[in-house]
Amino acid sequence: MCPHAPATIPDDARREALCSLCGSAFDDLGVRVVDGVGTLRVWSSNATGLDLVLFDGADVDWAIAELRFEQVGEGVWEVRSPQLHVGSRYAIRVTGAQGGGNSFRPHTNLIDPYSRGLVRAGGQDDWRSVVVDDSFDWDGAQKPRTPFADTVIYEGHVKGMTKRHPGVPPALHGTYAGLAHPAMIEHFSSLGITAVELLPVHAFVSEPWLQQRGFQNYWGYNTLNFFTPHAAYATTEARRSGPDAVLREFKGMVKLLHEAGIEVILDVVYNHTSEGGPNGPRTSLRGIDNARYYRQLADGEYVDTTACGNTLNTSTDAAARLVLDSLRYWAEDLQVDGFRFDLATALGRDATHTFTASHPLLQAIRTDPLLAETKLIAEPWDVGTGGWQTGNFGQGWHEWNDRYRDRVRNFWLSDIDYARRASTAPVGIGGFATRLAGSSNTFSSERGPLASVNFVTAHDGFTLRDLVSYNVKHNEANGEENRDGAEMNRAFNHGAEGPTQDPVIEATRRKAMRNLMGTLLLSAGVPMITAGDETGRTQQGNNNAYCHDSPLTWLSWEHEEWQECLRAHVATLTRLRRENPALRPARYARLGEETPGASEMSWFDQSGTTMSIEQWTDASHRTLQYLAVEDTGENPNRVLLIVHGVESAIDVTLPTTSDATRYVSLWSSADERPSAVESVHAPGDVIAVPGTSMRLFRVE
Questions:
Q1: Which residues pair with 305 in a beta bridge?
Q2: Keywords in UniProt for this one (predicted)?
Q3: From the CB of residue 584, how many other CB atoms can be counted at a distance below 10 Å?
């Protein structure tokens, strides 16, 4: 039976669709070299002819041979020759009839979609595929396979994280090798990070319109090829040595991070390519089979659900298999631990361009044996009709939880801003508590709280520091007259826009950052920290810095005292999360039932009594005590979290429960630096809680 057709998918038509992705017609696409003879297989159902063009190794503009492909059935074309070997530079030329959405240009040199290496030729959009030597000694290094319940993700940019680190040798700044340098590994480990999530490292290019304005695509969400590592992130030495060395450097990075127990998750962009709209560059898929690889209407007009010019048509088996094979390659050959799928809704749209969680590609990714234990994280939206799908990706998938982000920002920032002007906040604490406890109103009980990847910030949007320092975006440096970037940020500047010397405002901002980080790392679900937020990095109010490869986006490693204090808070919070399993349940608790992997949760108000129904929605009531218990037998883990969402201080009475004999203070967001003193309190004690703050206790 097809491995993508498990018994849990009973629908026969869906089962057949899944099996079609495994059809032999799509096997072994790309180059295979056996006994010195290379075979190249390319899929194009609409082409009338294909040619392989081989180029000189020293001058990739000089064609040295041209070979004709033969049709071998089901849209697959094949050519075999001893002239195609490791080190060969080559391109594909495709001919075909015009009309019907086709876009063939018989003299255009095209990238093999399955190419493992690339070199640029003379023209701006002129590339050569390279047959690489993919040998590598992993020396026994194994994937850490960190359980999701123990995972803390750190999202960052390969270049931005290392470009200015004083402990990384200058030759390694901004590179794969630099990311795996001991100085970076020490940073990740001391911070409690278990996985680095890298912004796109698939080979990418900058959009023509962006280059015309003197900018470049820094983030990398403009993929040129789904199999080749981005060469610009390799060291100068590796780039000079060629694609083989670039590939080895990437693998070396993964190996060293794995040896340190750190997983590697890639942000992958399969929803569109760098070929843009119909009049954009013709580098690969458009020239090979435009009508089948990109979503179109009957008249050839593109259906663009990505706002990037095109959308990969994953309702065709060939496009879906291209994505699946790319994932297999990165997970198996390059030992990558997981993937975050950019605009993942686009991948789950059927032939009518409608999203369905049972889409064959989404099911195939989830059930593929070669992707077993691989972390699958969806950005559950795109810009097409019905694009917002948070909570709808189904079993086996984890999702960026934008509803968590928005509620947490509202509670600590925009609600406080509102309360200053209207004397009371607009809403109570109920919605915030739901997010704190794992977003059970968004994810099904079968999926549980670990389906939620919680975040307060990401690469796209304000940094943590800017979130508490600006009311509005300041993107003038992007050259679009501040029209780009999100308008709704749920931010609060606390009394001054941008930098200020006011000590009260600065202190309030620092506490707000600690509250946001504390919420993130003490919530049920999987936390994701944005690189640099642990030290309060700023982008000067720019919430869309995608086009800046400069100190604006590179992490600074020179910190003021308050920044080191914030970093100490983050390290303390990840340690407390690690030490207290009650904070990271795998299942939702059910009233009156014992649920393995769940934390039993009790909710109390400031007086220590059980929260009433009215208090959850009362806008004047924004204080709660959250008791979480993970009962594993002899030594149950119990923690109490106090959340106070009003700027005035309050007295809180610790709950009196049959199981509690004392409360040991572990952390307070009111402290400028984490306290090493574990003060002890008795049930019924009254403690003073400062305005807008949190406190965590171990319950004994």
A1: none
A2: Glycosidase, Hydrolase
A3: 28
What is the residue whose two structure tokens read 């299942």?
587
Model-wide pTM > 0.85 = yes
CA distance 469 to 311: 37
Residues 197 and 351: their CA atoms lie apart, in Å, by 31
Q: How far is CA 649 from CA 219, 569, 656, 670, in A?
A: 42, 22, 22, 11
DSSP count for the chain of H helices, then E strands: 17, 25
453 by Cβ neighbours in 10 Å (0-12 / 13-18 / 19+) ranks as: buried
Instruction: Answer yes or no: 379 catalytic.
Output: yes
Q: 417: phi > 0 → left, psi -120 to 50 → alpha, else beta; which?
A: alpha
Question: Which of 249, 342, 415, 630 is the catalytic position?
Answer: 342
Question: Which tens digits make up the pLDDT trace of 492-540?
Answer: 999 999 999 999 999 999 999 999 999 999 999 999 999 999 999 999 9
| Partner residues linked to 338 by β-bridges | 265, 375
Task: Please give the structure tokens belonging to residue 580.
Answer: 């207290």
CA distance 505 to 487: 24
Tokens 């280059």 belong to: 211
Q: Which of 197, 325, 379, 415 is catalytic?
A: 379
- Phi and psi (nearest 5°) for 141? -65, 135
Least Cα distance to 234 among 220, 223, 224, 245 occurs for 245
Side chain identity, residue 680: V
State the amino acid at position 29 in one-letter form: L
User: Is 342 one of the catalytic residues?
Assistant: yes
Closest CA to 400 of 411, 409, 388, 412: 388
Instruction: In whole angstroms, give the CA distance from residue 401 to residue 439.
Output: 9
Average pLDDT score, the chain: 95
CA distances from 60 to 63, 123, 206, 319, 385 (A): 7, 11, 22, 28, 44
Nearest one of 349, 290, 272 to 314, comparing CA atoms: 349
Mean pLDDT of 122-136: 94
